[in-house]
Write a structure and sequence with these properties.
The protein is α+β, with helices and mostly antiparallel strands. 34% of the residues lie in helices and 26% in strands.
Length: 164
C-alpha cells in the first residue's frame, strides 16, 4: 500500500534511506559518501523545505520511500530509496508511478552519475538524461548542492526541456 508519510514515520524513513544508500559506498566519489548518508536533522530539514514523502508499506512495514518537492514550474523527485532486502520487487516503480500521477508538472530527478542502477531505473520508467549544459543549469536553478556534487551528478526529466 502506498501512503503519505507522517511525522511518526521519520525514524523508519531515516533507517530506509541510510540502509539503501549503502549502495553508494565505493561507487560515488569518496568525498561525497559518509555515514549516516542522511542525518535525522537533514531529513527533518528536507521535510520542512517542502519535500513530501510517500511510502510503500507491506504487511504494516514501511519498506520504501520517495519524496516530491514542488519547485514552481517543475517538481523534483527527492530521496527515492527502498530497503536493501526488498529491492527489485517493483516498490520503486510503484512509488514513482504514484507520484507521477499526482502532478501535471515536468518532473526532474538528480542522481549520482556513477549510480548506473538508478539511472537505468529512471530511463526504464520513461525519463531521459538531460545534456550536460542543461544539467548544470537545472541543478543550479532547482537544487542547493555543492559544486562537487554538481560535477558528479546527472539530471533526468520526464519531459522535453522543462526549463524552456
Amino acid at each position: 500500500m502506498i501512503r503519505l508519510c507522517e511525522k511518526k514515520d521519520e525514524e523508519n524513513m531515516y533507517q530506509i534511506i541510510n540502509d539503501a544508500a549503502k549502495a553508494y559506498q565505493g561507487v560515488i566519489p569518496a568525498d561525497r559518501y559518509h555515514e549516516p548518508y542522511m542525518s535525522r536533522d537533514e531529513l527533518v530539514r528536507e521535510i520542512q523545505d517542502g519535500v513530501v514523502f510517500w511510502g510503500f508499506e507491506d504487511n504494516g512495514e514501511l519498506c520504501g520511500v520517495m519524496g516530491i518537492q514542488d519547485k514552481g514550474e517543475v517538481s523534483l523527485i527527492r530521496h527515492a530509496y527502498v530497503r536493501t532486502a526488498q529491492r527489485q520487487g517493483g516498490i520503486g516503480s510503484k512509488l514513482l508511478k504514484h507520484i507521477i500521477e499526482r502532478t501535471s508538472k515536468p518532473i526532474l530527478i538528480g542522481t549520482w552519475e556513477a549510480a548506473n542502477w538508478a539511472i537505468s531505473f529512471y530511463i526504464k520508467n520513461g525519463f531521459r538524461l538531460v545534456p550536460a549544459d542543461e544539467k548544470r543549469h537545472l541543478l543550479s536553478q532547482y537544487w542547493s548542492i555543492p559544486e562537487r556534487q554538481v560535477e558528479t551528478s546527472v539530471v533526468l526529466s520526464n519531459q522535453g526541456r522543462p526549463d524552456r
